[in-house]
Amino acid sequence: MTAIFLTIICSSSIAIILKLNDNRKGPALVLLAANYFVAGMISLFMFLSQEIQAISIESFLFGTLLGSIFVMAFFLFTRSVRVAGTALATVSSRLSVIVPVIFAMIIFREIPGAVQVVGLIFAILTIYFFYRSLRNNPNGQLHLREYMVLILLLVGIGVNDFCMKLFQSWRPANEKPFFLLCIFFAAWIYSTGYVIVKKIPVDRRTINLGLLLGVPNIFSSYFLIAALTEVPAIIVYPLVNIGIILLTALAAWIIWREKLNRAGLRALMTGIAAIVLLGFTG
After folding, report:
1. Which residues contact 135 (CB under 8 A, 6 or more apart)?
2. pLDDT tens readout for residues 96-108
3. φ, ψ at 164 (rounded to 5°)
């Protein structure tokens, strides 16, 4: 369960850094490119530190493709923040837990126990209450096109998460450093190319924040794969996503004094119940 906890810490750090950048109106794509540069360098170090560098054409092609999906999911997130606000976009991204859980049940036959089914119900209730909490303070009415952006964000991040499970089941564990290297260097090339082609202004503060962001970004993926090796995906994905929501909400209250309304408090309570029930393995 340590890997799950570390995944939550890293992913929550990502959300906090993104909020900091959003507050100061830093160019998101510059932040993205700097972030993927650091993530790529760390993954290169991890790859070279192996006694035997395990590589394969399958991991290369899969990682390169997934790198493009990582970038597209981030584009969708930035668009979602613009049309629906940061908080609602974050909840939509965490609701992506539905995608890998369904795939895990269908493809890998990971059927939950009775207690974990109750935990999944509480997890769904948590997402619902967070949504109600945010809808009580909307940034204007959302139109069909804007809801579609949120849905695409959900699917994109869900596919990213499930691909981690697919790699863990399909490729040898010693290829993980090479796989991460391919993902993040490909994502860096794609995002940097976009910044150059679009001639997006670059400022040092955004670059520095992006360099910081790269550290929890790569380790969130690293620990997620480790967690999937230890615990069934049907437990990992809801536990990680609910944990991120709860920890991010707590950090937002401490740092920015963001208060929760009644629906938000209900989300916290059901979220805690979900974490306890989903972590039950007896």
Report:
1. 88
2. 777 777 777 777 7
3. -65, -40
